[in-house]
Amino acid sequence: MARLLVIEDNPANLELMTYLLHAFGHQTLTADDGEAGLALAEAGGVDLIVCDIHLPRLDGYAVAKRLKAHPALCRLPLVEVTALAMVGDRDKVLAAGFDGYIAKPIEPKTFVAEVDAFLAVHMRSAGAPEIAAVTDAPAPARVGGVHVLVVDDSPTNRELAKASLEPSGYRVTLALSVDQALTVLAGEAVDLIVSDLHMPDADGLALLTAVRGNPRLAGTPFLMVSASLWGERDRQRALAQGATAFLQRPVDPQQWLAEVAACLATKEA
Q1: Domains of the chain and CATH, by start
Q2: Per-residue pLDDT at 127
């Protein structure tokens, strides 16, 4: 595993990249402007830098120029992650000193493997090289038509769940609140509910109570997910109120698939 520096001023992009890197075992440092990023790099202990182009104070091109002129940092892998899409942009990035280029929006199922390609083999994450094999594999016959409702107020978490499940054949519906989830459930049948625990207004436990109290929905498997520091306490509360299973974040794609399959198996049993 490696220690990576991510320089990105967009909070959503930064959250997504660091979430994915952590899920596969990497450590991360973060900065939201070029000057702060350079300061962290110069402090040492970084194995690779992921950097955006459009940054406040000092843009990505200037960051690359200063890093490549630094005697102790010039060999540090520097990977550009940007939404630039004009003809010649990639050549410009490489000419500026970047060792590689990953286009935005990043693809969650391949991002870690793309970053790992710039690291020495012994620093690569154990799971990332297997992502494509897991998520691109043909879906088992029993998965076809299985409908999963994912409830989470975080756009990043919703998209990660969708990116993990859909390539394996699951039909995924997203809801950003308990009220929205209950509206979906009133009109559609689902095979599994995956819900975040901590959400504003009504939380995952409120949704669980509503589901278990509805005769039509009571038997639906319910997977509760949380990133809380109080993981064991949350797990006990969720299971005591009728959750089928409890999953602690961060979660990699393999874990999603395994937990979903296990919950569905309880319904079949």
Answers
A1: 3-132 (3.40.50.2300), 139-268 (3.40.50.2300)
A2: 57
